[in-house]
Amino acid sequence: xxxxxxxxxxxxxxxxxxxxxxxxxxxxxxxxxxxxxxxxxxxxxxxxxxxxxxxxxxxxxxxxxxxxxxxxxxxxxxxxxxxxxxxxxxxxxxxxxxxxxxxxxxxxxxxxxxxxxxxxxxxxxxxxxxxxxxxxxxxxxxxxxxxxxxxxxxxxxxxxxxxxxxxxxxxxxxxxxxxxxxxxxxxxxxxxxxxxxxxxxxxxxxxxxxxxxxxxxxxxxxxxxxxxxxxxxxxxxxxxxxxxxxxxxxxxxxxxxxxxxxxxxxxxxxxxxxxxxxxxxxxxxxxxxxxxxxxxxxxxxxxxxxxxxxxxxxxxxxxxxxxxxxxxxxxxxxxxxxxxxxxxxxxxxxxxxxxxxxxxxxxxxxxxxxxxx
Amino acid sequence: xxxxxxxxxxxxxxxxxxxxxxxxxxxxxxxxxxxxxxxxxxxxxxxxxxxxxxxxxxxxxxxxxxxxxxxxxxxxxxxxxxxxxxxxxxxxxxxxxxxxxxxxxxxxxxxxxxxxxxxxxxxxxxxxxxxxxxxxxxxxxxxxxxxxxxxxxxxxxxxxxxxxxxxxxxxxxxxxxxxxxxxxxxxxxxxxxxxxxxxxxxxxxxxxxxxxxxxxxxxxxxxxxxxxxxxxxxxxxxxxxxxxxxxxxxxxxxxxxxxxxxxxxxxxxxxxxxxxxxxxxxxxxxxxxxxxxxxxxx
Lengths: 373, 298
What we know:
In chain A, about 25% of the residues lie in helices and about 30% in strands.
């Protein structure tokens, strides 16, 4: 399996820049034809990992195999992978067709074959009409398509995409997500997709590697990372979550504001009596105007704000220590006005517990935000 | 969090006042004065040149007194062998020193932009030092150094070319560096990603992209060489005089209209080279603004 064309194997790879460890003993196996996303906040090492696959950076430790071949010290121009760059990096002095043909020309593909393959690639991204344009005469979305064609025309074993949709507006981004996924299905090429946008990763990937501080927090399919987050960080990064600090009770968490969380599947990794976090997703928080009469898995508060997002309603409920977010499908949702008393409750099956190690990553105090930029 | 943040009260936008009579008058005056002022500035800058060109059509034997129109000096300028030799020397020096400066400066500029590190600070400092050193110091230093070296450094074009190459290289270095620093370094990575080994990536991607800077740097180097007097006068060996040094040597005495004619020819040459560069840049798909930016080294 790991020797097949399009497979990627990253084993114990470490990359340092000066004293900064960008990638820390990372291991990852990608199967041929897979759409894998490297997802994480800026500085998590996802782009460095991609650059090591492309050959722009070399690992300090560990090794990488692409299609079964060790690629230590192999320069980018000898690797059977191609990259779609952030901001596209199209050659400004060449036309669209010349840009797309560039890789084939370097490989000394016969001239007669080049024109056919360029036409085919441009057709694939619906850019045939603009073949003689220069990059600066095109919109961001059009440049993006050309960048995809320029990489795919070479039929690489692995396509690397470095936040390719980041510069596009929302609507265009959603369109391109669908198209990229279709292209990948159709071509069967391995895609390694770097993004910080969890919706993008969730929408397109077969598997997502969620990265933090140079390592992988969780590697799983979109459904699993959403439903069974491996850490508080993942639970906070994928989708949204309401977090409470507290103490593990063995069957759940007793929060600092007195709320008692009882879980139907207690987390064994957090020992009873240890500091813990409880988390409930906004869409799992139900509201009632009357006291549900339970002492666990509920908290009372008042409505502080209502927002309408088309198909869903978002309530912000102010409770004793914190604001709780509740997302309800618009149809049949309880209609409340700011100031109304309300009870939030949830099912035991929706209670997540995590160790408190990552509490500061997921519970933000705006006053303590590090100034990084 | 979406909580009930009190909406800040904004100051009401004041309705625009109709301009006062004084304000209107000022507007009219400004519109009338600006073109006039611009014309004055242009006159100030170009009158001397027009004057020189005009004097090449003077009948009298100096450029200091106008008598009547004549083209006789245009015919006579090629009879003055010293004058012709000086122009040839100037052009030879300018072409050779510019060619060397383009190679050295382009490589240095690319290195500065693409391999930054601690060395760049010191190197840029050295380059700037070349440009800010008073030419007279430069000239004296070069002369004493060439005298020490002796031999080929005291004869022919060599000493003049070397002096010009030093400052021309500095100019080209800074212009190429500025251009490349403004270009996405990922373009070169993209070339590597598309199977181009470093040398090919250099000739197919990097070099075409810095070409506008190379051309404008070359143009600047060429003109700087063409009108250099001070440093040149120090190192010029016996029997080799550049055009500006020849003219400068005359300035104490009589300057005949044939010098004005030859100066007009040199001005024409300079304009032609500017136009050639502009045409090349236009062919390369640059807009007028980009070409203007290139000439100013941006």
